[in-house]
Amino acid sequence: MTMRGVTDAADPGLERRGAISRAEAAAAHFVSDLHSIREMGQGNINATYLVESGGRPIILQRINPAVFPDPFTVVRNFIRITEYLTRENGRSGRTFLVPSLIATRNGQPYWKDCEGGLWRAQSAIDGTAIRVLTGRSQAVAIGRCLGWFHRLTADLGCGDFEIPLPGFHVLPQYLAEFDQVLPASDRHWLPAERHSLAAVEGMRARAPLFQRLCDEGRLQLRIVHGDPKVENFLFDGAGRVVSLIDLDTVGPGLLHHDLGDSLRSCCNVSGEGGQAAAISFDLDSCRAFFEGYDAEMGGLLAASDRRLIFDALLLITFELGLRFFTDHLRGDSYFRVSYQGENLDRAAAQFALMESIGAQEADIRDVISAG
């Protein structure tokens, strides 16, 4: 996993080759007969590698302490959640594939490199990740899988899990961070930057909602996935979801954030990498998502929680746009970028999606409340 922005690299190709070389060195601690290694996906945070050897393929990742202050927390939570899901899998007749930890050749759950980075490996699951939904049935399948995860983890206590990212989804904290990096007013603002500034100020008053409800004791933490976007659901050739992956952010959190983030991702007609001008929130995908989700969760989703889902959807879309915009202003030091201005484009896309969500508030609330 690397946090360097594109502006730090004089030769991105050279940097990429160096990253592969470091991954090969790490892979040697997990497999004895490395055949090939290649980077997978376009993740904003993690650099993930598929490792082919004489045995079954594995997934290798480097957990960077620049993002996760205690990388060991991620490994410990991963072991706990995968062991639990494997044990409980198949309850009520439904089964999804669960990754498992792959120990190093000397039996350790991770390997630590000389820079302090922690490498861990897990079993590779046979499935395909998608970026944009192409059919209604995919939204149903995603909703059903997330409902399965929430149903199975409903009885898990938060005391057995640690918080992998302190401050994650605490929107007032992200706003404070934005205010700290906001340049002086005499900066020459690009048009897209001015639009993003207006979006931030327009949402500022609504931002504390969930933190306030938590502080008042009206919302309770429970175990959540933390990042249930489209690309973290693997599909088989028949269009069925076979697994929910990327368990780095599993830990105590709010159910509303999981639901809002999944809706934000799967109901965006242009996908995560879409351009702002082409982005809109698809109401039918939202309806299909809840068909699948409610079929799994049934009465476990309280009416009081359901009433807050729209707010979570709107605010988490704003949150992600705010985080992209903040990173753009401070020089792309957190999210991985492939070109100058990519984080600004990402922010513009999320703010455009936020506007589309806001414009359909009444209809979206009707869909949510119909369950």
Kindly describe this structure.
By secondary structure, the protein is α+β, with helices and mostly antiparallel strands. It has helices spanning 12-27, 71-88, 136-152, 171-181, 191-203, 209-215, 255-266, 283-297, 303-306, 309-329, 342-359, 361-369, and strands at residues 36-40, 48-52, 58-63, 101-102, 111-112, 118-123, 128-129, 222-224, 233-235, 241-244, 251-253. The protein has 2 domains: 6-124, Phosphorylase Kinase, domain 1 (2-Layer Sandwich); 129-369, Aminoglycoside 3'-phosphotransferase, Chain: A, domain 2 (Alpha-Beta Complex), CATH 3.90.1200.10. The strands form 3 sheets. Strands 1, 2, 3, 4, 5 and 6 form a 6-stranded antiparallel beta sheet that branches. It has a 3-stranded antiparallel beta sheet with strand order 7-9-10, with helices on one face. Strands 8-11 form a two-stranded antiparallel ribbon. Strand 2 and strand 3 (58-63) form a beta hairpin. The protein is globular.
Return the string of H and E elements.
HEEEHEEEEHHHHEEEEHHHHHH
- The percent of residues in helical segments reads 40-55%
- Indicate the CATH class of the largest domain: Alpha Beta
Which band does the percent of strand residues land in? 5-15%
Q: How many separate helices?
A: 12
Q: Which CATH architecture of the largest domain is right?
A: Alpha-Beta Complex
Q: Using the coordinates shown, work out and report the CATH topology of the largest domain.
A: Aminoglycoside 3'-phosphotransferase, Chain: A, domain 2
CATH homologous superfamily annotation of the largest domain: Aminoglycoside phosphotransferase (APH), C-terminal lobe
Shape call: globular
Number of strands: 11
Taking all Cα atoms into account, the compactness measure Rg is 20 Å
Helix and strand composition category: alpha+beta
Biggest sheet details: 6 strands, antiparallel
Give unreliable regions as ranges. Answer: 1-10
N/C terminus separation? 39 Å
- Whole-number total of structural domains: 2
